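re: that complex we talked abt at group meeting.

here r the seqs, copy pasted straight from the sheet so there may be weird spacing, ignore it
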Amino acid sequence: GGGHLPRPPHVFPQRRLGVGEPRDMQREIQEMLGLPGRPRSRAPLAAAQQPASAPLFMLDLYHAMTDDSGGGSPQPHLNSADLIMSFVNIVERDRSLGYQEPHWKEFHFDLTQIPAGEAVTAAEFRIYKEPSIHPLNTTLHISMFEVVQEHANRESDLFFLDLQTLRSADEGWLVLDITAASDQWLLTQNKDLGLRLYVETEDGHSMDPGLAGLLGQQAPRSRQPFMVGFFRASRSPVRAPR
Amino acid sequence: TARLLKKKQLNQINRLPHSNKQLGIFDDGHGSHSREFCRRHELYVNFRDLGWLDSVIAPQGYSAYYCAGECIYPLNYCTNTTNHATMQALVHLMKPDIVPKVCCVPTELSAISMLYYDKNSNVILRRERNMVVQACGCQ
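got the structure back, here u go
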């Protein structure tokens, strides 16, 4: 890429590359950097009508990571992480229709892309909350559970992860700590992570997460829920012999 | 013994006319007039030029630098050198056909951060180590 720069005053021995060599070299460098090659069919970021929530958040993290001003990172896990991955919510299930209680919203994530040998240092689930008027100005308890095992004839086994308390009029990104689930992913090699979210009012009544203002997959792209994992590399990538 | 050996070596060096101007196996053939000591040079790696912006979101490129130049005995001007490099440079002077010249290589590297899409359109932010040359030396 330095073609426009002045050449050094000496000349390196050069040879003409073979037919397949440039492609092999590109592949080797991409592998070394952990780049996967071309991603699956996806509109380029700039061309997308509205940027998605996860890339926007990751871009903010990138700027925080590369910012030299020393303003301090807004993300406490950022400095200890070598690899940060965002995961798009692939399946969303609701039990919020009708009068069946308790209401919940379930999110599933495909974790098969986590590189082997990475240790999880933290994980977050991020969901956008709009102000809710049902009920007006009340306290809401939002709790997150990991779906440990599903059963055909009874309720799933759940593992408590986090609880946040906020006002119904609050607006913005709600961050739930799901780090405790990460031990489970690594131990059981369970790559399909199911997370279940419950909302309760102050008097203990279950509430439809949608009515509480929590946005799901149907929300605008920039406000869709996603998950972020923070990892520490156990070893540097080894350059494969060519 | 060391003193005698040193004296002998110095004599040998003195007896090699223009020895440091003879071409070694890594010489460029341009002669001493174009010689430049080992140092860091500008190199900007542009991901757009490489056609990688399909997957790389940021940065669009970065200053990687590279090391180039010669490592000729004596290496006093080159701070990042090892004792072994000094010895090899000296032996190269005496036996340029057998012992290669000391290499000008990165001695200090730093990391960059890269933001890119994986195959499933998940976004990954990764700190890649040893990507930017901070210092060069003869080793």
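couple things i noticed - The two ends of chain B are 28 Å apart (CA to CA). DSSP finds three helices and seven strands in chain B.
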